[in-house]
Amino acid sequence: MVLDQQRSVRKETGARYKRQHSKKKEALGRTPTLTKIGEKATKDIKVRGHNLKIRVLRTDIANVYDPKAKKHLKAKIKIVTGNPANRHYVRRNIITKGTIIQTDKGSARVTSRPGQDGIVNAVLV
To answer: Would the pTM count as exceeding 0.85?
Structure first.
């Protein structure tokens, strides 16, 4: 099944629009990257404008910011303890923006989008 972000073929009344143009790169939709905990694995995706978007499929390291010491540290991710995006992501150890992760430095909230940024940044809570 193709994910598409263009308007529907049908009107509200059920009638069809006259003509649909060919599908464009900007209307392309993709399935979400569900970043998990494990040995680092990334995937490069070609996007519009000859650019690359790096998706993290699995990672076990996060860049953690300590606001008290005002320093950035590398920390090993142990487990996901909370996720406001979906409560079932906690059980499956899926990391998204806003996820609370348990690291060897303490509990931290993820501030980056690992499925789009290619890295896991977090702030100690």
So the answer is: no
